[in-house]
Structures are given as structure tokens and as C-alpha cells.
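FYI - complex with flavin-adenine dinucleotide, inputs then prediction.
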Amino acid sequence: MKFDSIIIGGGLSGLVAGISLQSKGRRTLIVSAGQSALHFFSGSFELYNTDKSYQEALKGLDESHPYSKMGIERVLELASGVPAFFSQAGIKLLGSADCNHFRLTPMGVRKPAWLTLDGYVKIPSDGKFPYKNVTIANLEGFLDFHTEFIAAGLAEQGVNARICSVSLPELDYLRTNPTEMRSTNIARAVKGDVLGALAQKLSAAASGTEAILMPAVLGLESPQAAESLKARCDLPVEFVATLPPSVPGIRTQLMLRSYYQKIGGTYMLGDTVEEGLFEDDILKGIRTVNHADTVFEADSFVLASGSFFSRGVMASQEGVYEPIFGLDVDAPSDRGQWYQEKMFEAQPYMKFGVHTDKDFKVSVSGRTIGNVYAAGSVLSGFNAVKEGCGAGVSILTALDVAEKITR
Amino acid sequence: MNKEINTNENNFEQCIKCTICTVYCPVMAVNPDYPGPKQAGPDGERYRLKDPKFFDEALKYCMNCKRCEVACPSNVKIGDIIQKARLDYSSKKPGLREFALANTDLLGTVATTMAPIVNGTLKMGVVKSAMHGIIGVDKHRQFPSYSGQKFTTWFRKNAQSKQEEYSRFVTYFHGCYANYNYPKLAKDFVKIMNALGYGVHLMDKEKCCGVALISNGFKKKAAKQAATNLDCIREAVRRGEPVLGTSSTCAFTIRDEYEHILGMDNSDVRDSVMLATRFIFKLIDAGKAKLVFRDDYRRRIAYHTPCHMEKLGWSIYSTSLMKMIPGVDFVMMDSQCCGIAGTYGFKKENYPYSQKIGEGVFRQISEIQPDIVATDCETCKWQIEMSTGAHVENPITIIADALDVEATIAANK
Ligand SMILES: Cc1cc2nc3c(=O)[nH]c(=O)nc-3n(C[C@H](O)[C@H](O)[C@H](O)COP(=O)(O)OP(=O)(O)OC[C@H]3O[C@@H](n4cnc5c(N)ncnc54)[C@H](O)[C@@H]3O)c2cc1C
Ligand code: SF4
Ligand code: SF4
């Protein structure tokens, strides 16, 4: 079966590459082994952890960093187009391509952020929390949201918080089984008329304060539930990230996928790419577990198979490897150099990933494969956690690679 | 290159406790009595291995849809772990209802001979109430009607001798549904294969694939039937023929469940068992065959992906074929469970959940307003027809109806 481009991995990076290529008129296929890291999404995409402008901060990066390979100008140029790109799929993101604002973590801590999903608490770049008096409301029985931590975190920022918990009869049946009281099951139950009842209870509990902060558990398929709740409350409603799974993250995944399919892309979930068929340093086609002898051919390929979490790169006793094609990786063979003793220090293994040239082309035994590009967290050279650049690298390298393919 | 290191033959140790599977379990979303894939699967397995008394009878609520496996980023065989646990540890013996629902071919043989009576009887309120009360088959459920003549009977009388005029052959695994309830599907398959220049053979002793036996707790009987089927399949493969099916669940069961659940080695023939749409698409894609369609066929078709089709990953073949029909306005529906899961939705304790699970599918169909809903699974067809009134067909039937038979024969000479 022949496509123009095939993307391996259907998480944030693969979907951005797929949408970008498909909307440039390519016939594309995405193959994804399982669901993605977006299911743990905090509500904010990060570009780089800094209090300076991005322009300033990115200058100092090592030349092996994906941003350095792209060049700072290119990073910032692509970054400025990201909100418009996501809005095609109905996803509204707020933030700037110059510098960070802040998000509020489930632990009540303020963290730098690049783009925040509309609806979440967004603290402006000056760091001043937008309210002085808020109500933090949880849904009774929901254990993945810690109001006390958030209140304590807000107190440090000089914000008074009232804590309350509202009960909804529609959730009682979920509470009969505590492991059922998950964000996603709440999202399924709290919709339609239930939103009216919730709005009344929230408004009553929060009267006298300036805003309602509640867990981000509304709307698995579309942002409509959240909007409808806001419209019915007397006070502004702002969402705070919960512990996983992340309802807005799953929604983002579903909306990107459904937009990709709407513009004609083919998405195959639950299938693993097993091997590649090479001819003279060119990848001709791939084979997958489900399709056995069917070869999926394409002119170009994007490897967006994620990091260790998604098995895009793996580690064994013998070393770190890329499991599909056996691509060259950037990782020392000496296991002693993989870890730092102090757990919270930057861990060297976080930077391990697939080796690429300046155009993000991959290689096998030092020989560049002319038509295979890597994008997203499968790449080497960055520490998504310490540098706070996970989504930035995933989105921007995907856009960059898609442009390189179509150029 | 991807090596998994496990101490146990099922791979529950690969679970990284990410909870992603719980998001996509259709049952967990509607039934709080079900512990969900993570708890019922890899988490529970650790305990069960220590002591079988940790087995939880609530695992019976699992529909074996495998949507958890499709979602799991760590490749954990969650559905297999749960099904195996049910068969190996459950102390509940299957009853009369399970026997009736599981023995699709026994029931089919009896019902076909008495089709008019059986069809009428299954529609009668009294009978439905009695089944509801006494054996626990839900009274709201509409039964598929039985055909007066089995496909195999028709085939032997009307088609078998003509097949030898061809020089290339395929073997057809028709399954119970095409044989007893809807022979048109099987006849459509024969029509297409013949037009493409292939003769059709049946297996000597086809047995029900056994999916209903597995889900109703009859492991031994399922294994016996599987062994007979595998013998026949091996014979076909020795003749150089692929074994084609028109039901996604039969194909999935023979390819995957025989090995994963029943522990039978099918590796020598697994790749030869496939859905007809996959075989036909691959012929066309390789330039070895051509389908020519009538130019007066106009339909708006919405495709529903059955759970086992999602697991097989093969909807791309069925949908690509239907998209080749010039007059088709094609809409791909979101991949979600319709709620029936074979005999699951027939049981009175599951019926309300079953309908609730299907709500998303039903809603989407009413939004799309298709002329036909296409799907590769017969139980999805019952469920969708009963719950929405929509007209549902297998892609094979759609292709056969749109086919210009004479032109196709000519193009494949
Ligand atoms: C738990 C977690 C939480 C995070 N939270 C945030 C956050 O809130 N904000 C932020 O900015 N960044 C966050 N990050 C950083 C994250 O890496 C990026 O934001 C981004 O989501 C990664 O996208 P990706 O597409 O590169 O990889 P992934 O999302 O990991 O997707 C890779 C996909 O490839 C598939 N795949 C792998 N191998 C194969 C194969 N052989 N065949 C077919 N498919 C295959 C996988 O199944 C998976 O679906 C987080 C990372 C993790 C691990
Ligand atoms: S999705 Fe897979 S890895 Fe994650 S909890 Fe479920 S079984 Fe475990
Ligand atoms: S097989 Fe289906 S019903 Fe069973 S646990 Fe998995 S998703 Fe749930």
C-alpha cells in the first residue's frame, strides 16, 4: 500500500507532522502502537524553562540540541504559528512566542509555560496571580485533586483560598467503586443538564470570592462542557490540572486525531511498526505486526515514536537502542554514565535518543538514511523535564520536518 | 529487536501502571461493578498467581473487546489476561443460558430447519418474557432471524460443481451467521470471488470458530472445535489456498484467540487466515485483479469499526475497497464499541449497559444519516439495526451489490 509520507507514532509530534503534511496535499498514514504521552498533559505546552525571553535563553544551548539544529530564528518563527495551527482542530491555546507565562501544577506550584489550553488557570508573565480571593472546589470523592496543596501553594503567592467540595448525585454511582472515581469517568458523567446543577452548587459555594478553581475534568470529546459550565456560573471558572489521566490531554489527542482524519489522513492505532525495508540507504517501506506481509511504502517517513515511555527508544543490558530500524542513538555504552546519583539532578539518560543530522535525518551505522526524519521526544540532545521543552521540541521539530519534506 | 523479558508467559509484567487502558474500556465507563482493565488484568494477575482465591467474579463483565490492548502503550495483553483468568479460575459453572448462547451452530441447525416457527417464536412476547425470567436472556433483545435454507445447502445444490471451472481457488470460512442467518453474505462472497476468477471451496468440517464458547466458559469444547478447524485450514493451506472469512470476529478468533486463550499452536497457518476484504484489496493493490462497478450505484455509507476489527487493524482494507466504488459517499465513523460484544449483550444483566455503551455509535449514525451502515461484524449489525433502525451490511455485500459482474469477469480474464 502506497502513501506519500508515513509517520510512525501518533502522539503530539506524529499528529502535528501528519496534519501539516496532509494539509500540504500529501497522502499520509500514521501508525501508532498505543496511546501517547498527551494522556499525562498538564494543560500547558512548554518551550523552554526560563525567565528571560526565548530569544535570549535559546542562544546558550548546546549545538546537539534540537532547537540549535533548527536555528533560533526558525524555532521562534514556527512557534508563533502554533496557536493558529491548533485552532484548525478546534483547540484554543493562549500564550506568546516571546516569553513564558506560568501555569499552576496539581501541587499548587507555579511553573513556566509557553501555551496554555484555554480554560486553565493562566498566570501572566509578571507572575501576579489574577485573583486575591478564590474558591477551590473539588467534586466529592475525587482523589486525584489535592485542594490542600493547591491552597498552600496559592497562599505562598499571597492568594486566599476557600476550600470546598460539591457533591453531585450523578457521581454517586461512580463513588461505589473508588477506583472508578477517575477524571475520565467523571467527564463522561458531568455533561448536559448536570452542568446546570454543578454551576448552581459552585456559584453558591464560592459566593464572596472572586473566582472558582476546579479540577480539569470536563469534556472528553470537546471543550463544550467547560464552556457551558462557565456560561452558567456567576463567577469566572478556571481549571487546574489533576493527577493523570488528563481529560484535556486526552481531548487534545482525540481532537487532533479527528481533525487529521477529517482532512483525509489515515490513522491506525494499536499496530506496531516492526521493521523497515531498505534499499541503498533509502527506506522503501515498513512492515507492521497487524499487517504482516502488507508493505506500507512511502517516499518519506517521519519517526515520531516517542522516548522510553512510549518505547521509541529502549534500554537493555547491552545498551540503549532504537527498536524498529536499529538506528544510531546518542547514548554512551557504559551504563555508569546513564544516571546521576542525586535523583533530582538532571539525569543523563533523559537526553538519550535517536541521533540525527542538522536536518533531523536519521542514520544506521553512520550512514544517513536520506528519506527518514525523526521528530519529537524520540530525538536526542534535550532534557524535557529539566529544560521544560517537551512539547516545544515535539511540535516544532514536527513542523520543521514536515516543511523539509514538502520543500 | 524489541525484546520483552518476562517471568510469566502472559506479559502482565510489562505494565507501567499508566492507567491509559482504563480510559478506553467501554464497560468501565458505564458499569461501576467492573474493576476495569488495569485492575482486572495486570494488577489482579499478580494476586491470582499468588492465590487463585483472589479471582473476582466481576471479571465476567469484561466484553473481551480488546480496546484496552489497542490503547496500551506498553503492549500488555490485557484482554487475554482477563479472558484466561475467567476460564482458568472462575468457579461459576456455565448454565443453560450460556449453553444456548454459546452453541451457535447446534442452535443454528435446529433453527434453520424450523425457521418460520423459530423466527415467529423468538418474536413472541411470552417467549421473550420466559427467556428473560427463566434463563436470563434479555427480553428487549431482538433475535436475528434464521434463514430457511443454510448457505451450505444452497452452495452444494447450486454452486459447488461450477467452482471447478476455475483454475485458482480460495477456501471460505463462512461462520455461523452467514450459514444460518444471512446466506446472502456468503453468496455475495462467492459472487465476487467468481467474478475475480477464483473458485470457492468450503472446508470439509467447518465448526463454529468458538468465540461464543470461549466467552461463555466452555474452554474444552472451544479447543475441540478449534482443533477440527485448524485441521481443515491446514488442508486448505496444503492445497495452496488462503482461508478467507467475512466476519471480523471469526477471523480474529482463529488467528489470535486460538493461540492466546486456548493455547493452541496455529503459527503455521495464521498468516493464511484472513478477511476477504484484505485478500481482495491486496490483489487489486498488486495489480493482479480489478473490480468494475456499476455506474448507477449511489449510496451514502458510514463505516463502523467493530472492536475485533480495530484489534486486527484491518478496517483499512474494507474501507479502501468501498471507497473504490464511484457512487459512494463515504463517512468514517469514530471507532467505538456498539455495546453488543457477541452474546454479551443478550444477557439480562448486561443489556442496559450494552445499550448505554452503544449510545455514541447510535448518536453518530443519527447525525450522519447514511443509506447504509457498513461493518464487518454480524453482532454489530444486529445491535445497530435493533437500536437505530439503520440498514446495516457487510462491506462484501456492498461491493457485491455495486459490482458490474460481467465487466469484472471480463477485466479479470
Ligand atoms: C508522562 C509525561 C508527561 C508529559 N507532560 C508534558 C506536559 O504537560 N507538557 C509538555 O510540554 N511536555 C510534557 N511531556 C513531554 C512529552 O514528551 C511531549 O510533550 C510530547 O507529548 C511527546 O510527544 P511525542 O509525539 O514525541 O511522543 P509520544 O507522545 O510518546 O508518542 C509516541 C507514539 O509513538 C508510538 N510508537 C512507539 N513505537 C512505535 C512503533 N514501533 N510503531 C508504531 N508506533 C510506535 C507510541 O505508541 C506513541 O503513541 C510529558 C512527557 C511524559 C512522558
Ligand atoms: S495501559 Fe497498559 S501499561 Fe498502562 S496501566 Fe493499562 S495495562 Fe498497564
Ligand atoms: S477487553 Fe474491553 S471490556 Fe475487557 S477490560 Fe479490555 S476494554 Fe474493558
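The pocket of iron/sulfur cluster (ligand 2) is lined by residues B 15-21, 38, 41-42, 72, 74, 76, 78 (CB under 6 Å). The radius of gyration of chain A is 22 Å.
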